[in-house]
């Protein structure tokens, strides 16, 4: 990734025009105020989302996800610089393939596109028990998760093994990228995941052994202290947070579980906003990818909230901050 900032000058100029089409907080409020899911789809279609009328929410969201990476491939010759964003999809697909084989049944729609590997490659490696066909970093966790599910039938254990591996891959990719923005992404992704895991584990009474297996080391958290706090209770987690870069999360923890998890997800968006003012470099491109993923997540929350007839306030408290 040893590129000059100006190598991305044209791409950043294109991204600036695309940023004008990102969804604002006021538009999300329009969606929240809409009477039903169909009304939301119509508003989104008027903003250029999807491929036309008659789409389901799933089809519209899939179209928008595809557009992110179609744009990236158009702007950047070597898209491997963005693999740090894709490892989560690889490990999701690995998890899906192992569980599909375990249940000996196909499940439509369980695989995600836009990974560093095609879902077919992962599925074939798992179905033939040829984990050596996977990238080296995936081989050990794939075998471990496969064996764990085979012998214990514990789907959660399988999830923990592969979720940890995905976070480790993301963190390592950020570290070795040589890019400050991607390193920040890796750090914040792992830190936010650790905080949410500690909080959920505390509320559900998970063991210290579980936390030791699930939490992933990063520079901004001391895992022994976080683990001990999680064993003691949510108040102890709040006190621990007050001595970390994430002290603001302590107040959200006092408000509600959903407020805390929302804060964790919003953290990354807040940290990447300065890229709106960067004229060169990889950062604005990477931030745009994250901004689009974030707005798709918020739209998904709204659409499925409307479909399931949740109250407007209930949906609103789950919607994430916007980039613009």
TrEMBL record:
Alphabetic keyword roster: Ion transport, Transport
Residues of the signal peptide: none
Domain of life: Bacteria
UniProt xrefs under InterPro entries: ATPase_csu/dsu_sf, ATPase_V0-cplx_csu/dsu, V-ATPase_V0D/AC39_subunit, V-type_ATPase_csu/dsu, V-type_ATPase_csu/dsu_dom_3
One Pfam family cited in the UniProt record for this chain: vATP-synt_AC39
Record GO terms (molecular function): proton-transporting ATPase activity, rotational mechanism
Similarity comment: Belongs to the V-ATPase V0D/AC39 subunit family.
Protein name, as recorded: V-type ATPase subunit
